[in-house]
Design goal:
The protein is mainly alpha-helical. The chain contains 16 helices and three strands. A three-stranded antiparallel beta sheet has the order 1-3-2.
């Protein structure tokens, strides 16, 4: 819970400026549509480039140390953005914010502090926190903008970073030892194999495109709401709140149906198609039609929330045994690079062709993603299992791999002797946990 709190206080600040930044940045010295988009998405570039290095460095210098350093960099960037009166200054501040790439380190610390059997639930809690923070931020951001302005939101980020440091130092337990966890961290030796996995690359492109579309859309959607609903930026929470509630109500049954009925691919492809349709609608409908505008934005967020809920699960299913952390690290980096491309590309399109250019840019990404998603294989009902194996020699590890690979429902298995863990990828339809316990009992040393 404390680590989820660190995640949430940081993400709240980052997401709160999305619905109000474009309107604010237009009044900054030197602002152009391209530079506004670049400034909105700039933190994604430094985040994407530094996520994996931060995680690897935390193995050497300690998780808490790297989290505190990262939150300090985030606070520094926030202060620079708050004090800046030019778009260039805010751009520098946004890049500095992104250098505090602590997401991978937080997940590694979650792994250090949890047992194998409870780790999946702990990671899910952090994931829920991310989604909740995003929705709260879209509603709270406009309210705070009206009270303290966007510079005040940047100063609030400084305070949230300080709160995060306090949580890390005084609320988060210190692990007895720091070790690598293949289910939560990037392993450099596995990067090449993950980057060659076509199923994972399709999903990486998906999260890249999704956040490129999201970031570019926020360059023009607030202005569209102002024109169609006569809502200034600081009052647009009145629109975002019901839009997000309705979109979640549409998303939950779709995800439940996909999981229970094993219809993930049609639901997934349908959500991408809905995303494309929402961009086409925003491009073609009259800005003065408030009902059509709100309906299109509801469709967008329903598709967005469905993708955010299903993509991490699909990455877990597609990742080879023992490579889940590496696959997740690449996926996370693709997401942040998508934010950067969406901001920069959307800003360029806005400068070249106005709001219509931004929607064409987003629609092109959505249609390309639809083509990629349509070619994906039907996701298999695979899940990851971890089992502690105690001290084993190399020969015992090889024997354990052979025995576990022969169990019903085991698709892939990796034993990492130095971690004392066996990583299994299993088919939930035929796998029996009792078989795993029996196999471990026969080979585990006394």
């Amino acid at each position: 819970m404390s680590l989820a709190g660190v995640f949430s206080v940081r993400l709240l600040g980052l997401f709160m400026i999305y619905p109000v930044f474009a309107a604010y940045a237009r009044n900054l010295s030197g602002a152009t549509p391209f530079l506004i988009g670049l400034a909105l998405g700039a933190y994604g570039l430094s985040q994407g480039l530094l996520q994996i290095p931060f995680g690897l460095l935390s193995d050497r210098v300690g998780r808490k140390t790297m989290i505190v350093i990262g939150l300090g960099l985030f606070a520094l960037g926030s202060a620079v953005a708050a004090l800046s009166t030019s778009i260039e200054g805010v751009l520098i501040g946004r890049v500095l914010q992104g250098t505090g790439a602590v997401g991978s380190v937080i997940l590694a610390l979650v792994a250090d502090l949890t047992r194998e059997e409870s780790r999946t639930r702990a990671m899910a809690l952090v994931g829920i926190t991310i989604g909740f923070s995003f929705m709260v931020a879209l509603v709270v951001g406009p309210i705070l903008s009206g009270l303290v302005g966007v510079p005040g939101i940047f100063w609030l980020m400084v305070g949230l970073a300080a709160l995060g440091v306090a949580i890390v130092l005084w609320a988060v337990p210190t692990p007895r030892r720091v070790q690598a966890h293949r289910d939560a961290e990037t392993v450099p030796a596995l990067l090449l194999s993950v980057l060659r996995n076509r199923d994972l690359l399709r999903l990486d492109f998906g999260i890249f495109a999704l956040h490129a579309i999201l970031t570019s859309s926020f360059l023009v959607v607030p202005h569209l709401l102002r024109g169609s609903l006569a809502l200034p930026a600081e009052r647009q929470w009145v629109a975002y709140l019901p839009i997000l509630v309705v979109s979640v109500l549409l998303m939950v049954p779709a995800v439940a149906f996909a999981e229970r009925q094993r219809r993930m691919k049609p639901v997934f492809v349908g959500a991408v198609a809905l995303l494309a349709a929402s961009q086409a609608a925003l491009l073609l409908i009259a800005p003065g039609d408030p009902v059509a505008v709100v309906a299109a934005i509801i469709a967008f967020f329903a598709a967005f929330n469905t993708m955010e809920a299903t993509l991490p699960s699909l990455v877990t299913k597609a990742a080879p045994a023992g490579a889940k952390g590496t696959a997740t690290g690449v996926y996370s980096s693709a997401q942040f690079v998508g934010i950067f491309v969406g901001g920069a590309g959307g800003g360029w399109a806005h400068q070249a062709a106005g709001a219509e250019g931004v929607f064409v840019f987003a629609l092109a990404f959505a249609l390309l993603w639809l083509l990629v998603a349509a070619t994906m294989p039907k996701p298999a009902p695979y899940s990851t299992r971890l089992a502690r194996i105690g001290e084993v020699s190399g020969a015992e590890a090889d024997a354990l791999v052979a025995r576990l690979a022969g169990l019903a429902g085991v698709v892939d298995v990796v034993v990492v002797a130095e971690e004392h863990v066996a990583y299994l990828k299993v088919d939930s339809r035929t796998f029996d946990a009792a078989d795993l316990e029996a196999a471990l009992g026969r080979v585990q040393p006394a």
